[in-house]
Amino acid sequence: MSKVSNVPRLNGSWSISEDSLRRFVLHASGNCIQELLSASMSNNHRGGGDVKGDYYDGWKVVALEENGIEISKRRSGSFNSFRSRWLLKSVSPQQFITVANAIDAAKQQWDADLVEAKYIKDLEDNLSIIRLRFGDHSKPLFRNREFIVYERRETMDDGTLVVAVASLPKEIAAGLHPKHNNSIRGLLLQSGWVVEKIDDDSCMVTYVVQLDPAGWMPKCFVNRLNTKLVMIIENLKKQVLACPTNVVNS
């Protein structure tokens, strides 16, 4: 486990070597990956018997969309985690690759409110530091917020893809990238994707998010976040359906 408690502080930020940063982020992202896998496996093969309001492993189903997307939430300490899931059936090899390649925190296609996504540093081939910025005209939940996050991509032995995204501690983030003008630096506690192959040529796509956007959201914003989760999965779904099913990756 990497420790950062003895790193020198400079004006509210930490000056940290790249090696120490890499070790810290590898440890943090490893924990995030395990949490994402746990969330995705929570009653993953129930066969569509979910009922709104039911609880499974602490997850409460709050919405079942007509398009097959399930929205759930779970209390995690003083925060709520939100999860959206979608079962993609009869997946060709090329469609699975399309899903995997499309998932990228720095791609603005997932969120119309995202005005800038910039890579700050690559720590390893599958591990990057990214700045996400939301503008003045974004919805209230994200208006004028920015997040300094890591993104780590891992493929498990069974072919499951996990993409973990979470904020760096604010002192480390400040040392890597000064805050933009009058923007507010939010905290993405945990988020990410799990794309799991299932035996019958299907795959389960799970997206989990837990965040504090610098001022936790009032209850009226929860519905807006749920809508955003549906939109994110829908955008992915459109890409998959546009992919030819008869193309096999060479």
Automatic annotation (TrEMBL):
Gene Ontology molecular function: lipid binding
Source species: Lithospermum erythrorhizon (Purple gromwell)
Pfam family, one: START
Protein name: START domain-containing protein
Residue ranges annotated for the START domain, each copy included: 57-250
PANTHER family in alphabetical order: PHOSPHATIDYLCHOLINE TRANSFER PROTEIN, START DOMAIN-CONTAINING PROTEIN
GO cellular component, as recorded: cytoplasm
Superkingdom, taxonomy of origin: Eukaryota
